[in-house]
Specification:
It is built from 16 helices and 15 strands. It has 429 residues and is of the alpha/beta class. It has a seven-stranded mixed β-sheet with strand order 4-8-9-10-5-6-7. The protein is elongated.
């Protein structure tokens, strides 16, 4: 059996290095880097590059060398090997044919990795070689950052008191201005929210696409595309948002809701977060609840003077029902909060049912819907009528029971997603 040529000899034969350079590298290996491979030392010294060493290794072990950045690897092949295993073993699957999985690696002597992958995939494994830098880049492009690694990194980098998870109304708001040491994904998500605030957006849409993730803002009721990020960043960005909102990052099959309270650009901001699984991945919508806009007076809402006079007369009537409807972002909540601020006096009892309470108004009794314990709108309406209110506000009419519960026959299913401000029949003092 012919003895295999040494790596240094192959590099010399192909004139990738000189004899002096090989001698210096061997001397360095013996004196300073006993456990380091000669190829790595030659690259560290700048005598040759990764590609030359990989080419020599391919010749030494009679393997094929590929330039992984030039390969088109089908998604079904990538999915053959779990991301965690690929990153742990530093390999890239590049082909699967007739029960044989071809993987790309940089160390032809790493037989343990080949055995482990063959066991997990339950297939025969063949190897081709690529440069270490090429494999590292491919791991990032194809698999992104490992999810658990990303989670730990995010938790470790929530600096300056930015807590994650759902928090109550009495919790202090976090200040995330000027975070300099955060990980790139954390800074990116914070920047997207800040840009949306500057654009006066009411919603931020993170939408998975086949080859990218689209980010859109809704401004004055109209969506426009703001940013587009590579598909490989979709998972880390969605995970970051779900962590901030107190959502289950492991659950990717069911819709989820969450809430984020932060202080950004010297403003207290609430974000209602909704996640919806789709064919290209989870879509996230963040509703921006800016307390500065929710405290506007009726005069600041842009009413024509004649309409403002009519609206003021309507909300001051001693009895009746005022129904406020409109599409998403049209200003229903802002209008009703402005009306409540106008009506809020010490001699009036006001109760609201909201999902969730978007801003806490002093002097007003606000009830937060909790479907987990059956505390829904219809139940709150029945309970609040025993509290002797002058005015009640029902945040949403999403079902027939809520519409008919107290006022049978008054509404149809067409009133779903509306806001309802109901002065009761109790006369004013």
């Amino acid at each position: 059996m012919q003895e295999r040529k040494k790596l240094g000899e192959i590099l010399l034969d192909y004139e990738f290095i000189s004899e002096r350079q090989l001698s210096e590298a061997l001397d360095r290996q013996q004196k300073e880097h006993a456990g380091k491979k000669i190829g790595e030392i030659l690259v560290d010294l700048g005598f040759c590059g990764d590609a030359e060493v990989t080419r020599a290794l391919a010749l030494q072990f009679n393997l094929e060398m590929v330039f992984i950045e030039e390969l088109h690897i089908p998604k079904k092949v990538v999915e053959k090997v779990p991301a965690e295993l690929a990153k742990e073993q530093t390999i890239i699957p590049v082909d699967f044919n007739s029960g044989v999985l071809t993987v790309c690696m940089s160390d032809p002597l790493d037989l343990d990795s080949v055995d482990k992958i063959g066991f997990v995939v339950n297939a025969q494994v063949e190897c081709v070689l690529a440069t270490p830098s090429g494999i590292r880049d491919a791991l990032t492009n194809l698999y992104g950052v490992a999810e658990q690694e990303l989670i730990e990194q995010m938790k470790a980098n929530t600096a300056d008191g930015l807590e994650i998870g759902t928090r109550g109304a009495d919790d202090e708001l976090a200040d995330i201005d000027g975070e300099e040491d955060d990980a790139p994904i954390i800074r990116y998500v914070t920047g997207v929210i800040a840009d949306a605030l500057k654009a006066r957006a009411s919603d931020i849409h993170f939408e998975p696409m086949p080859n990218r993730m689209r980010i859109r803002y809704r401004v004055d009721g109209v969506c426009f595309e703001s940013k587009s990020v590579p598909k490989r960043l979709q998972g880390p960005i969605i995970s970051r948002i779900k962590i901030m909102a107190g959502m289950d990052i492991a659950e990717k099959r069911k819709p989820q809701d969450g809430r984020i309270k932060i202080k950004l650009l010297n403003r207290d901001i609430d974000l209602r977060v909704s996640g919806l699984p789709a064919t290209q991945g989870e879509g996230i919508v963040m509703r921006i609840l800016d307390k500065e806009t929710l405290l506007l007076g009726l005069e600041q809402l842009g009413f024509h003077q004649s309409d403002l006079e009519v609206f003021n007369k309507l909300i001051r009537r001693p009895n009746g029902i005022l129904l406020v409807t409109g599409p998403t972002g049209s200003g229903k909540t802002t209008t009703l909060y402005a009306a409540l601020n106008t009506l809020n006096r010490p001699d009036r009892k006001i109760i609201t049912a909201e999902n969730p309470v978007e801003y806490h108004l002093e002097g007003i009794n606000q009830c937060n819907v909790s479907h987990k314990i059956g505390f829904n709108f219809s139940r709150i309406i029945r309970a609040m009528m025993r509290q002797a209110p002058n005015i009640i506000l029902v945040g949403e009419i999403r079902d027939l029971e809520t519409a008919d519960n107290r006022y049978p026959g008054s509404f149809s299913r067409d009133t779903s997603y509306s806001r309802l401000c109901i002065p009761t029949t109790r006369p004013r003092p």
